[in-house]
Write a structure and sequence with these properties.
By secondary structure, the protein is α+β, with helices and mostly antiparallel strands. The protein contains 21 helices and 7 strands. A 5-stranded mixed sheet has the order 2-4-5-7-6, with helices on one face. A two-stranded antiparallel sheet has the order 1-3. The relative contact order is 0.04. Bound molecules: adenosine-5'-diphosphate (ADP).
Length: about 650
């Protein structure tokens, strides 16, 4: 029974919370008239809100209609306070009609805006309503949370009525959780604030609530509180609480076994509850009447109220069932909402992931491009540097080579000059020396003849050197011309043989080698077209060398017709030979001088073979040497010839 009574009081209290906010119904028309002429947007929003508020309890659709109109206008004009008011209206209308999910949704949106615009009263109201809605749908933890938030806001505002309301709401939750001590503390707190503010409405409820807690443990105290609440309710014409308190007191009287008082009290309670159609109070009052008449053995009336009580309980159970269905619907709606939120969050997450992935991809590609660009640049620079370094090295090498060549040339020139002065001075000294001797008196005839022939011979050597130098410089500047005329090779060879034979024979110490020559038979009495003078000069140079570097064995020279257009000459000796490494050098100007300096036979300018090669090149011929150290050398050369027509 007490459970029912408790529930009755609470429902009445909740109803009161909202009715305190609602507008008296009579005002609706005047509000609508005002709306018809009002031009200012913010005022129109307020009017929409107020009209909606008037419809909260009796016309759900109209309440929604006006609240939504207000909301649209508030959104369009970006009126935050107006928007919050209209959301509040939508939340309350839905709450009244047990659309709890919608009620919570709108009220939470309302709370968010109130926080944004720092509307402390709005924050209190939204939290207070949320606490009550959650209490109603029996979510005690959230009910406690929002009611406490409401208490914080009320304390901020330092508003005793609001503090009292929030305290009562928290007390209700504790009471339902069976935490009577905590509930009492809060109720006493509320009692203090309500008294201070002379807040009769809350005093009625908090006193009744305290009485309810004391009902079992301290019935006397309970009676005092119920009677206090009853007096105030009667004073203010709060029929709901008059009925409830009468019924509470009748329950106490039944416990005291005072059926007459109980019947009288619950009878009054039943009548008042019937007037306002309060099924719950009616049901409990009927049950008390049944018990009272039963105690008085008036079974007829007792049965009548038992049946009444049962039918009321049935309709209440029905109501309870409807509430359960509504709760299930609410649960379903909340689950759906939760799912939607989760899907939304998931989508958001996916979108964020996609965006992050996109960013990552972009970042990766960018990094790749940068790395590639860097690599390309790096390799390009490297290649450039390598190329430049190769070019630089090549250039350096060329420079070094040029420098070495210049140094070499310089060295060769110095050596050449030193050697040349020696070569020139030797015969000149001889000429001057013998000329001096000739000047002396009383030089016998035969001596005079010998000096003269020596002077002649040395002058000839000198002439030869000068001719060589002239030839070299002429060859260098291209002044020597090949003069091709008809000549007989056989005669040339015989002439050379005779000349050298004579040379040998004129020597005081005869050399220990033979001199031989060979001319191919086909060439006998044959005239060919070539530069005979230059060929003679070449052969003399080669034969002079052979004589210089040979001590024993033989010296042979000869000529053959290699084909119909070329003559092949050779000069062969069994002298000291030329090391293989030096064989290529001997045809270069000056080069051999130093290279072969150790040569004991070495005299001369080192120009002979270079003149020979220069002349042969001019004749478009070719010269080469075959030689072995200690065995001897053979110089070959071939020149083009023509037969006269
Ligand atoms: P040179 O006036 O020094 O003889 P050449 O140009 O005629 O100048 O000869 C160059 C060098 O070649 C000689 O100094 C010598 O060392 C070497 N040479 C030339 N002909 C012979 C040869 N028939 N046998 C050995 N060495 C030779």
């Amino acid at each position: 029974m007490h459970k029912y009574l408790r529930w009755i009081v609470v429902c009445l209290y909740l109803f009161l919370n909202l009715t305190s906010m609602a507008q008296p119904a009579g005002e609706v028309d005047s509000l609508k008239n005002l709306l018809a002429v009002e031009k200012t947007d913010s005022n129109r929003i307020t009017l929409f809100y107020k009209i909606s508020r008037s419809y909260w309890f009796n016309n759900f659709d109209s309440a929604l209609f006006y609240a939504r109109n207000g909301l649209t206008l508030a959104d369009r004009t970006n009126n935050r306070k107006g928007k919050a008011d209209c959301l509040n209206a939508l939340g309350a209308a839905n709450w009244m009609h047990r659309n709890y999910a919608a009620a919570l949704d709108y009220t939470l949106q309302n709370l968010t805006i109130r926080k944004e615009i720092r509307d402390e009263t709005g924050i209190f109201n939204a939290n207070n309503n949320l606490g009550l809605i959650y209490y109603e749908i029996e979510n005690d933890s959230l009910a406690l949370y929002y009611s406490r938030q409401a208490l914080v806001a009320a304390n901020h505002l330092n508003d005793p009525i609001k503090i009292a309301k929030a305290s009562i709401n928290i007390g209700l939750v504790y009471s339902r959780l069976g935490k009577n001590n905590e509930a009492l503390t809060l109720y006493y707190n509320a009692l203090g604030y309500a008294k201070r503010a002379n807040d009769i409405i809350d005093l009625i409820y908090v006193k009744s609530n305290i009485g309810e807690i004391f009902m079992e443990s301290r019935p006397d105290s309970a009676l005092v509180y119920f009677q206090g609440s009853l007096a105030l309710a009667e004073q203010t014409g709060n029929k709901e609480m008059v009925g409830a308190n009468l019924t509470y007191i009748s329950s106490l009287k039944l416990k005291e076994n005072k059926p007459d008082e109980a019947i009288s009290l619950s009878g009054r309670g039943f009548t008042i509850a019937s007037e306002i159609g309060d099924l719950k109070v009616m049901s409990v009052a009927a049950e008390n009447l049944y018990k009272g008449y039963k105690l008085k053995n008036d079974f007829k009336k007792s049965l009548l109220y038992l049946e009444k009580s049962k039918s009321l309980q049935d309709s209440m159970l029905n109501d309870e069932k409807l509430k359960k269905i509504a709760d299930l619907k609410l649960q379903f709606e909340m689950n759906e909402k939760q799912k939607q939120i989760e899907i939304l969050q998931k989508n958001n997450l996916i979108a964020r992931h996609a965006a992050t992935n996109q960013k990552l991809k972009f970042g990766f590609i960018l990094a790749l491009v940068i790395v590639l660009a860097f690599l390309v640049f790096y390799f390009y620079r490297n290649i450039q540097e390598k190329k430049q370094s190769i070019e630089r090295k090549d250039y350096e090498r060329q420079l070094i080579e040029a420098k070495n060549r210049a140094e070499e040339n310089n060295k060769l020139k110095s050596a050449f000059l030193a050697n040349m002065s020696h070569e020139i001075r030797t015969p000149l000294n001889a000429v001057v020396g013998f000329a001096n001797l000739l000047q002396k008196p009383n030089v016998p005839d035969h001596k005079q003849q010998r000096f003269i022939s020596l002077i002649k011979s040395r002058s000839f050597d000198l002439l030869h050197i000068i001719e060589d130098i002239l030839d070299v410089s002429k060859l260098e500047v291209g002044q020597i011309k090949i003069n091709e005329t008809t000549a007989d090779v056989t005669n040339l060879m015989i002439e050379l043989y005779d000349y050298y034979k004579l040379k040998i024979d004129s020597r005081i110490t005869k050399p220990e080698f033979e001199l031989m020559y060979y001319v191919d038979k086909s060439l006998e009495n044959t005239e060919l077209i070539f530069d005979g003078q230059r060929v003679r000069q070449i052969l003399i140079n080669l034969l002079d060398n052979a004589f210089k570097y040979t001590e024993s064995g033989y010296i042979a020279f000869g000529c053959d017709l290699s084909d119909n257009s070329h003559l092949l000459f050779y000069v062969k000796d069994t002298g000291i030979g030329i090391p293989e490494s030096k064989q290529k050098l001997i045809f270069d100007r000056f080069t051999q001088l130093e290279e072969l300096n150790n040569n004991m036979f070495q005299t001369g300018t080192g120009l002979g073979l270079s003149i020979v090669k220069g002349l042969i090149d001019l004749m478009s011929g070719k010269i080469w040497v075959e030689s072995k150290e200690e065995e001897g050398s053979t110089f070959w050369f071939v020149i083009p010839v023509r037969f006269p027509k």
